[in-house]
Input
Amino acid sequence: MIKPLNPRRMARRLPGAGVGAPQPRSVVPPLLVSLLVLGSGDVAADLKEGARIFKDACAECHTLKEGRNKKGPSVYAVVGRKAATIGDYEYSDAIRSSNIVWDDATLDAYLLNPNKVVPGGKMKYEGLKDPEKRRNVIRYLKFFSE
Output
């Protein structure tokens, strides 16, 4: 039977690691953790492509900076958030009454055809027709939502 490692015993072996000493930080970089969480496949390429598509199709009106809006609201941490909940943005009545919570399915439908999902909304965009491009943008948005 293999005994589990005792962290206190291991700490005594590290130079300068004792009671009150700073604990070692994780050796797994945050980006790597995010990539592992997002799933398999060529995730880094998907994120890079998602960033490119976001810049080309979304960044004129939206930003990924928290607390900063443009023509449209910030989409920082949008995945899992209820629509029309950023306090300092003036949403349309249509999106406010939509009761949408942004997840993969709602984002996919909205990016495909915003006016069909929220008739009377303020977003003046015909939609992103390519499902692969939508998937990459959603993956990119999820990266900024975790």
The longest helix spans residues 43-57. The chain is about 40% helix and 0% strand. The helical segments are 7-13, 30-38, 43-57, 93-96, 104-112, 114-117, 131-143. Residues 41-143 form a domain with the Cytochrome Bc1 Complex; Chain D, domain 2 fold (CATH 1.10.760.10).
